[in-house]
Every structure is written in C-alpha cells, then in structure tokens.
Amino acid sequence: MLSDLNYNLYALVLITSGAFAFLLAAWIMRKRRQVFNWFSIMLIAAAWWAVAYGFELSSTSMENMLFWIKFEYLGIACLPSLWLIFCYSFIGRDNRLNNLTFFSLFAYSAVTYLMMLTNEGHHLFYESTSVDYSGPFPLLSIDPGPWYHLHTIVFYSLVVAGYWALIAHLRHTKPVFRKQNRLLILSTLVPLSVNFGYIFLDLRPYGHLDLTPFAFLLTSFIIAVGLMRFGLFDVTPMARTRVIQELSDGVAVVDSHGRLIDFNGAFEEIMKPREDLFGKRLTECFPAKDMDQAFPDLGEENLQGHILHLNDGRIYEVSSTILYEKTGLFNGSAVLIKDVTQRIESQHKLEDKTKQLTELNALKDRLFGIIAHDLRGPLINLQETLNLVNSDVISTEERDEILKILGENVEQSVSLMKNLLDWAQSQQKGERLELSLFHVESLVREAVEPLQSLLKRKQQVLELDVSSQLEVYADRERIKIVLRNLVNNSIKFTPVQGKIRVWTEQVQDDVWFFVRDNGVGMSESQLEKLNKEMELESTYGTQNEKGSGLGLMLCRDFLRQHGSKWEVESEMGFGSTFSFSLSALPKDSHPADSDLYKYQ
C-alpha cells in the first residue's frame, strides 16, 4: 500500500504535522494527571485521523483510498466522545460521567466504526463512492448514507455539549483562569468551524478536500504554544476546585500591587465580606480597626508565621510565598492564612499550667525543707532535752530554764504544724469555700485566743476594736486562719512591751479588717515581694523566733480565693499595717461561688 502512494503537499503537511501531534500527546501524557491523559488521547485520535487522511490523499486508486479511510474513522468515531470527557474533566465535573455514560459514548463510537468497516454490505454509511481526477491529485468522492447523517448529528451534539460546559464554567471562573479557558475554547473552535463549513456549507477545495484534519493540527500547535507560553493545564480549574477550594485554611493570590485576584472559600469565610473582594488589598480585608496591629506588608519577600490578633479574639497565622514570572519578574504572592486561635490558647494554657507546676514544685521543695529543718529540729531538741532531764545530771534551776525554752520551741512547732495542715487541706481536690454569714467580733476573739501565751511572754498589748454588730459573708475557718497568722506575724516582729491593734470598719457593703503593730517594719524589697505576690522568705523575729513564711503565704492565697487581697503599709522602725476587705452581704456573683477560686 505504501509503495503505491503519490505524495503531494497536502498529504505531506498532514503526515508530518500528525507525527508532531503524536509527540506532543506523548509529552503531555508524561504529566500523569487525568485531565492531561484525556486531552492526550483526544490529540492522538486527531493525529491518527490526520496521518491516515494524508495517506488517503496520497492514494491514486479507489482501493487504496477506501483502505486508508477505514483507518481514519478509528480516530473520527472516537473524537466527539473524547472531547466531551475532556471538557468535563477539565472543569472538574467528570464525576457526572458515570459508568453508563462512558459505556454509551464508546459503544456509539464502536458501532459507528463497525458501520464504516461493513459499509460494502449495507451502504448505510456511504451510499456510493467514486474517484474524482479533475483536481491536481485524485480525491475520493462520497455520497453520504443515513448513518453518516446520524453520525454528524451525534458528533455535533457531543461537541456542543462540551462547549456548553466550558462556556458555562467560564462565567463563574476566577479571573486568573479565564485566559486559559478562552485559549482552549477559541483554539478548538477552529476545527469545528472548518468541519461545519465542509459538511453544511460545501466549503471544499477541489470539490472534495476536507480541511478539518488541517484545522485540528493547527489547534494542536495553538495548544502547544499555550502549554509552553501560558502554562495551560499547569493549574486547571479542576485542580483548584479539588485541592485549593477544599482546604480548611484560607488561600489567596495577590498581584504585584497587592490586589486580590483569587481566593478559596475558606478565605472568604474568614473575611466574611459584605462586598466583592476582587481587586481589594489585604489591608482592606483586614481593617486596622479590627486588629491590634497593622497587617504586614507582603512586598517582595516571603512571610513566615506572622501572628495576627483580631479584636474579636480570633488569631491567625499569615504566611506568603513570592510568585515570579518565567523572566524572573515579581508577579505577586500566594498567601496562606491559618486560624490558630485554638492552638495559641492551648499553648497559653499549657504555659500557665507549666508555670503553676513549676511554682508548686518549688513550694513542695520548700515545704519539705520546712518539715526537714524547722519541724525536725525542735522535735530532736525535745527528745534530747527529755533524755537530759531524765538523766538527773542537771539542777532544778537548769531544768526549769530548759523547759521554758523547750515550751517556746514547741509552741512555734505547733504553729508551724497548724499552718502546714491548713495548707494541706487547701490543696485537697475539690476543696471549696464554705461560705456563711457570721459575726466578726466572735471570729476575731477566736483567732487571737491561741496567741495569748505569746503576747504574755513578750509583755505585748493587744487592743481589739471590733463592733459586735458587723457581719461578713465568707469562709469562717479560713478568715480565722488569716487573722491568726497576721496577728502572730505582728507578735513576732514587735519588740517586748510593744502594741498591736486589731479593728474593723464598714465601708458601704464591705467590712475592712486592720492589723497594726509598732514593730520593726519592713524594707522596700520586702514590701515589693508582698505586693507582687513573690515568694516570701523566712526571717527571725525580735526574739529570734523562727519563721517559715508559710503563714503569710496562706493569708495571701485564702484572701485571693475570696476575691480580695491585702494592702500593706510599713516603715522601717515604725511598724506595719495589714488590711483586707470582705463582703458584708451574700451576693449571687460572689467569686467563691465558682471553681475559679479554688486554690490555684
């Protein structure tokens, strides 16, 4: 067959261009994506038609022409089906083409091809064929049959359906994709228009020459330019819909002037726009009035992990990647906006918990130190003194003096033990304030009663000026511990024959408690630690009474649980005044009614 061919210019153009189309299809298929595969198969079908038609144009006999036309229809019969599948795949709607649709499309193509192969037995495709020698080279002349006309109707129906889908999608396509959509539509209109003229308008050079394969090859060249110049198919609408649009993070593309040219649904959800966002700057999408800092200027640099705080409590992490033209010119930026509100809040909570655990560990170590030293020491002294007394090696006067000192040590140890037990009780899981309404006077007297022996030993005067009518709404036992420790602290740091005064005052709905002494007072650094709730150091009293700092720490924490805190005034050499307030009436919104004021 090939030896009987008489090549002409038309045939050589078709054969060489068809070969190029085969190579182009193979190159496109290397991208290994569904939309590329369907386009490549469609291009192979068009190239097959073109090459076979080139051999038909080179034939000089009826037998050769009919032989090659059977090869042509292997591509022609499949082209409309492949075109429709490609269009739906390109716009991301191939899920609408189910198995039945695929079967129907290719069953039609197979039946059409079989009708062509068996035409000599039924003449439903071509009623008659002949060779026209009037032109510059022999051309096959055909008289179409019924199936040929049916094939033409189906061919154009499928082609129009594909165009309809593309054009409908173009109306809703973001501007960044419209260039490639228009290029695809316009380029494929060329062979369709030529074929329409061939069939319906009788536009046929030399009476029978079909220019449709030439037009298909021209389209191939246009698309090849689009692939190399515009990156056609590099980012298809399907890829955008299935990847970018489904991201839970906001994605936006801005041009070199910082204007929005594309974004996904998540970005739109973040912005909650009242008007169209296209063409706006990101700084307009994030107004300064909605943020506690300005939106970062993207410029021509990548942005990584910039945290953006909105006034409504939302927190976003903004990152951007620079986009360049193939020439190296700055073309814009791709911006990723992630909602990290929950992550940042969890991170802050974790940091707070870590800080609390660190403080509790330090407190635990300190308490163990108190138990090991301040509590263990007096107990060992007690044991040794008792052994000494029982040994009868000391006089009665020496024994009385030792017992006096021992009694003081035991009192200090008992006070320390009480504070340790109170602190341990406050740490119990689920421990809450037991709120009640009670008289202040009886509470104050109960708090200072255990301290009478200490006052007598140091010959100090304790003055109580508390109204019998005042009541407060609080945890009675904890406030008693607070008062006991504050008065005990005053006794410790007030010299012999010193004076301590405790009084109360009502100010509107609050009752204020005051504990004042004329003791040694506190330095500025000690006051700063008290006011800033820093760790309290143990110091010795005016008669070398040993302290641990645990009593004042309990006072501070118990007051905080009540939604109160102390106020301290002190001057070195002139004494100190501690004061705090409590509610005189029960309140629905009392801070102790929630878990918030459990021991932190």
TrEMBL record:
Domain Histidine kinase: 370-586
Molecular functions per Gene Ontology: ATP binding; phosphorelay response regulator activity; phosphorelay sensor kinase activity; protein kinase activator activity
Enzyme Commission identifier(s): 2.7.13.3
Gene3D superfamilies: 1.10.287.130, Histidine kinase-like ATPase, C-terminal domain (3.30.565.10), PAS domain (3.30.450.20)
Domain of life: Bacteria
All copies of domain PAC, residue ranges: 301-352
SUPFAM superfamilies in the cross-refs: ATPase domain of HSP90 chaperone/DNA topoisomerase II/histidine kinase, Homodimeric domain of signal transducing histidine kinase, PYP-like sensor domain (PAS domain)
Keyword DNA repair: no
An annotated GO BP: osmosensory signaling via phosphorelay pathway
Record's keyword terms, sorted: ATP-binding, Kinase, Membrane, Nucleotide-binding, Phosphoprotein, Transferase, Transmembrane, Transmembrane helix, Two-component regulatory system
Top-level enzyme category: transferase
Pfam entry (one): HisKA_7TM
Reactions accelerated catalytically: ATP + protein L-histidine = ADP + protein N-phospho-L-histidine
Record's GO cellular component terms: membrane
Localization annotation: Membrane
Membrane topology note: Multi-pass membrane protein
Membrane-spanning segments: 6-28, 35-55, 67-88, 100-118, 147-170, 182-201, 213-232
Record protein name field: histidine kinase
Annotated organism of origin: Croceimicrobium hydrocarbonivorans
